[in-house]
Each structure stands twice: as C-alpha cells, then as structure tokens.
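Supplementary Methods. Inverse-folding protocol.

Structures were first reduced to a discrete structure-token string of length 121. This string, shown here, constituted the complete conditioning input.
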C-alpha cells in the first residue's frame, strides 16, 4: 500500500550519484530534513486505489504521486529531475510535467512531475 518510488530510485546508479545513497535524498512530503543537501526530492501521494473487479479481488494497486525536485539553480534541478524521471518511467507513467519555479522560503529551484504506478499485489 506504499508506492515503490524509493525502491526504484535506490536501484538506479544515476539517481544515487545525484541524490546520494546514505541516505538517498528522496523523501515522503514533509519529511526532508532541514538543511538537506541538494538535489533532493519529495513525493506526495495524490490518490491510491485498488484495481477492483466484479467477482474477483484486486490484483494490483494504482498510485498517483506528485514528485518535487529541488536544487540550487534551474539547470541543476532539471538535470536532477531528469535522472529521477528516467529511473521511474520504465516502471510507471508520467502524467504531467509542472512548470518549474523558485521556493519562496529557500530560493531553491523546483521542478515537479506527476507519475502513476500500477503495482501487483
């Protein structure tokens, strides 16, 4: 009942090279430590549901996530987001790319995308 974003990100050498590996800086929304090294990403579950069928129990779950990547500059955040996207996309569907912006509190560049997972039970 948890989307596999962390496991898939951790399995990617490219993501670990960019986001570290001890710890991997890919966090559930609201749990990134204060002053975390960049780049880092946070994800938020928008929706999750079982794939229901008439007469049978669900055999998979669907998750829709928003992923926000942060780094110091727009070019750096786009490069980091691309690495994370490339690691996740073979296992999920990218639903939308969101316009990048600057976090008003930190001044960090942010890039977002939405992703959908279907995971077998």
């Amino acid at each position: 009942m948890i989307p596999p974003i962390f496991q898939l990100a951790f399995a990617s050498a490219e993501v670990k090279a960019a986001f570290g590996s001890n710890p991997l800086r890919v966090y559930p929304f609201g749990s990134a430590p204060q002053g975390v090294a960049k780049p880092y990403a946070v994800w938020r579950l928008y929706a999750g549901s079982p794939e229901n069928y008439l007469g049978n129990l669900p055999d998979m779950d669907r998750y829709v996530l928003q992923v926000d990547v942060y780094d110091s500059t727009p070019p750096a955040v786009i490069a980091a987001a691309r690495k994370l996207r490339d690691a996740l996309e073979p296992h999920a569907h990218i639903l939308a790319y969101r316009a990048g912006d600057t976090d008003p509190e930190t001044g960090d560049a942010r890039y977002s995308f939405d992703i959908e997972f279907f995971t077998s039970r």
